[in-house]
Amino acid sequence: MPPRLQMLPTQWQYSLPKPLSAVTSLSIIFPQLQQQSRNAHILASLSDTPGAYNKRIRRGRGPASGKGKTSGRGHKGQKQHGKVPAAFNGGQTPEIVVHGERGFDNIFSVDLAPVNLDRIQEWIDQGRIDPARPITIRELAQSRCIHQTKEGVKLLARGAESTLKQPIHIVVSRASATAIASVEAAGGSVTTRYYTKSAIARIMRREMHPFLSMAWANESGSDGLIKAERAENLTESVVMKEMGFRYRLPDPTKRRDIEYYRDPAHRGYLSHLLKPMEGPSLFFRSPVERKSAAGVKKEKVLPENRLW
């Protein structure tokens, strides 16, 4: 038979109140009961992290819900009793008919931060930008030449009449034709490079190279951005290993972006991919290819006895 538990002295039980004596006797016999009661109290007080759970609003469930009776619609009126169009003006002539529609939102536009040549020259004169090194979006942002990187940087030609005092090599998202001509007239170079918002953020954290990528690794030394003696042995993997970059700079995937950065007129970084006499369009075909695709035109042979 299993061993019996030793009974407590009777004077202990009569000396305490009845409920307390029962709890005390059990806690002496089973000391783990105190631990269990504490755990039960902790489990009963669990709750979600603040902000992790939003309770669904139940409309029309009484005044205690905060959305009872009128369900948050207020009292009387047209908007409380039915749906009204967003531009509804009480039944009179709509505003768009009276004043007309002006302007539109271009869904394909890119929000770029503008920077002009005169501002860059002023920053160089103050010693805030080093013209001997490539000027990228990181140098422009860290020197406060631009205050917002947005989706990239566009180089404009304000101050082009007073030409640059020294050659500069600048890498931006886009550039105007006048700005390109002014920089190249001073002996410098302009290169347009594709960027994304996430790529710009990583460039600012020095986790990504500002302009070198797989599609541009072997062609970057020809435009003055990198010294010629290192251009031959310079690859993206070598740069990432030497400088400790964690991410690769992305290349464009949309046709509109690919064709823009393949255009030599825009000084795109993908212009080296074009063959001689080839255009930046992805659907470009040379005259020889067009002629071969059209085939040889056969001459119509008329019978001998035909009068016309």
TrEMBL record:
Residues 114-191 form the Large ribosomal subunit protein uL15/eL18 domain. Residues 70-82 have a biased composition (Basic residues). Transmembrane segments: none annotated. SUPFAM superfamilies: Ribosomal proteins L15p and L18e (SSF52080). One of its GO terms (cellular component) is mitochondrial large ribosomal subunit. InterPro entries: Ribosomal_uL15 (IPR030878), Ribosomal_uL15/eL18 (IPR021131), Ribosomal_uL15/eL18_sf (IPR036227), Ribosomal_uL15_bac-type (IPR005749). Pfam families: Ribosomal_L27A (PF00828). GO terms for biological process: translation. Residues 52-91 are annotated as: Disordered. Keywords: Ribonucleoprotein, Ribosomal protein. One of its GO terms (molecular function) is structural constituent of ribosome. HAMAP family: Ribosomal_uL15 (MF_01341). Belongs to the universal ribosomal protein uL15 family. NCBIfam families: rplO_bact. This is Ribosomal protein L18e/L15P.
